Amino acid sequence: MDPMMILALLAMGCFGGFAAGLLGIGGGMILVPFISAVLAARGVPESLVVHMAIATSLATIVFTSLSSVRAHHKHGAVVWRIVALLAPGILVGSTIGPWIGKQMNTATLSWFFGAFVAFSATQMLVNRKPAAARDLPGTTGMFAAGGVIGILAGLVGAGGGFVSVPFMTWCNVRIHNAVATSAALGFPIAFAGTLANVFYGWGEPGLPQYSLGFIYVPALLIIVAASVTMAPLGARTAHRMPVRQLQKVFAVILYALAAYMFWKAL
């Protein structure tokens, strides 16, 4: 791997790690478009580029989420009760998402990624106030919500914050707590999804050297080295920002990602 590509991956890791701590989105959605570009430049077959970018992105979240949640926990912002209720459904959903993604071609996967990210951004930007009496659902409802979050996160290679943060704020969880709790949820999502991507990608023809299933290991190692150092800085920044400003930053970044993936699909 040439030095310029290594520098590009380090820069991605810094940006993705900061975003993971700031927004609780695991950094995955930030990384997918950039990893896609790197893999394409290395001559990876077009049919595998987005699948591998999603799998590699999801694997980075295993490490980034631990660094991010540690910083949020120091601020007492993680609601561990919500983590415990959502995690079982997330573990189930995160193994299903990569399987669904394997059945989709690159263009379809790119369209789906872009559409869902744009929808999430709009929900955050509109800032429609939830009913004052609205609360989190019961145990069954939380398991179902976790399953949906896990499937979507595993499908698009993200930590689930693009779904879990809007879901929690819709249920009257303060956004700073939603971001911190989403960071904690990133680990079970990424761990289950990574194992699934290794399994579903094992023996796939056309994979480049140093791949572990759909995961491109050199990119994973370089990105993680940078992202775990930046995630705590992002977390500290999040706790200094006003609620509405944090929501707007979240939405703008998601719109930019959606636009790139629509372009990729075309």
TrEMBL record:
Q: Does the keyword Transmembrane helix apply?
A: yes
Q: List the transmembrane segments.
A: 6-36, 48-66, 78-100, 107-126, 146-167, 179-202, 214-234, 246-263
Taken from the UniProt entry, a GO cellular component term is: plasma membrane
Q: Which domain of life is it from?
A: Bacteria
Task: Name the membrane topology term.
Answer: Multi-pass membrane protein
Q: Do you know which Pfam families this protein is assigned to? A: TauE
Where located? Cell membrane; Membrane
- Metal-binding among keywords: no
What are the alphabetically sorted keywords of the record? Cell membrane, Membrane, Transmembrane, Transmembrane helix
Record-linked PANTHER family: MEMBRANE TRANSPORTER PROTEIN HI_0806-RELATED
Report the family membership: Belongs to the 4-toluene sulfonate uptake permease (TSUP) (TC 2.A.102) family.
Q: What is this protein called?
A: Probable membrane transporter protein
